[in-house]
Specification:
Blueprint lengths: L1 H15 L2 H4 L5 H10 L1 H16 L17 H8 L5 H8 L9 H20 L3
């Protein structure tokens, strides 16, 4: 777990250097949704979004499948460059045209949930 945390910290630091990625933060409404639904429900939504919108070999509407706001997972996906296959290829070397295996999907979900956790921890 410590190794994963170090990798997350390095990845978050790399993302923070991007003007585009670093501008994403949870709104008050999105924070309220996390508190209202709870972590388990948000994780379930995250798993579904990754499985149906990112993991397929040829995602439907790829490049336009992830809204910019309205759900904490959508915001996390943009902040973490996990919003479309082009971003996944550029930032995380996930090849286009190949289905993302379940084990890698779990890693993506864990990373997105870590970002959401960081956002919730630093609310002000």
């Amino acid at each position: 777990m410590v190794a994963a945390r170090k990798n997350y910290d390095a990845a978050f630091a790399r993302l923070a250097k991007s003007k585009f990625r670093s501008r994403f933060h949870l709104s008050a409404t999105e924070r309220d949704l996390v508190r209202e639904k709870g972590e388990a429900a948000i994780r379930s939504h995250c798993e579904e979004f990754v499985r149906t919108r990112i993991a397929p070999k040829q995602p439907v509407n790829d490049g336009r499948q992830t809204p910019m706001r309205g759900h904490p997972v959508f915001v996390a996906q943009h902040a973490c460059a996990c919003c479309c296959r082009d971003c996944m290829a550029k930032w995380w070397r996930v090849p286009r045209g190949v289905e993302i295996p379940a084990s890698r999907q779990r890693g993506i979900v864990d990373f997105l949930m870590a970002w959401i956790g960081r956002e919730m921890a630093c609310e002000g």
